[in-house]
Amino acid sequence: MPAEPAPAVRRAVSPLDHRIEAVTGHDVDTLWTYRDRGVLDEAHARLVDQHRELAQAQTGLVFHRKVLHRLTSGEIPIDAAFFERVDRTVGQLENAAEARDAAADRVLAALEPIEATTEASTPGDGALSTDDQAALLAIAGGAKLYEHLLTGRRSVPTASGTRISHAKMQKLEKAGLVVRDTSHPVHAGQPVTLTDAGRAALFASRRTPTTQMSKPPARPGARPSTPAQRR
Questions:
Q1: Are strands 178-180 and 190-194 parallel, antiparallel or unpaired?
Q2: Please, are residues 163 and 157 in contact by the beta-carbon 8 Å criterion?
């Protein structure tokens, strides 16, 4: 299997990562991967898109801060050009901070409804079996329903190399989790995709219950901590 290419830009860590990971049960890198594969429902996809903007803004802020640090580190002669560069860099740093704050506000706007929904939901409702999860995840990467010309047998080969039985496909279709494009002839292959309900069910089933808004136990003898102020 070929190695995955390294990302062009390393994701910057934001102060909101821990809240995102707590409410979803996934680390941010996994969420980004799910977004690229089209597995996430609309609300979580919007959250990841906003988080990517925040990561980009955070990267810009770090860059301008490093430039300012280099200017004031004693490596550059202090002259008229020096002060012009410092003024320009401070202005860029200020703009970057404003962009970061605005991006963080947008992440919060997308995150807080998900937190509210998670707190109100009942764990275990509509849970998928492990086999159903695997089938939906394979379909999310690309799949088609084919019928053999001679035998008439139907199956769903996927882009990942796995093959889903027609019975499994019918079960998922009847549950409203997948849909096939019947405008294509079945002998040539009918594309099968996840519905919005399928994406939501798959994402919810792949959460890690132990990470959902859990609080670490207090150390013996430690004073109770007060909740951190939300931005």
A1: antiparallel
A2: yes
Give Cα 49 to chain centroid, integer Å.
8
Strands, DSSP E only, in 46-196?
143-147, 154-157, 163-165, 178-180, 190-194
Give the rounded percent of residues in the chain with a pLDDT score beyond 90.
25
Interatomic CA distance for residues 162 and 143, integer angstroms: 9
Neighbouring CB atoms inside 10 A of 182's CB total 10
| CA dihedral angle for residue 47, residue 51, residue 113, residue 208, rounded to 10 degrees | 80
Q: Name the residue among 162, 122, 167 with its Cα closest to residue 138.
A: 162
Q: For residue range 172-204, what is the model confidence (pLDDT) as tens digits?
A: 999 899 999 999 989 889 999 998 888 888 777
Nearest CA to 112 out of 196, 206, 47, 41 is that of 47
Nearest-angstrom CA–CA distance, 20 and 37 = 19
3-state secondary structure of 179: strand
pTM comes to 0.52
CB 46 within 8 A of CB 114: no
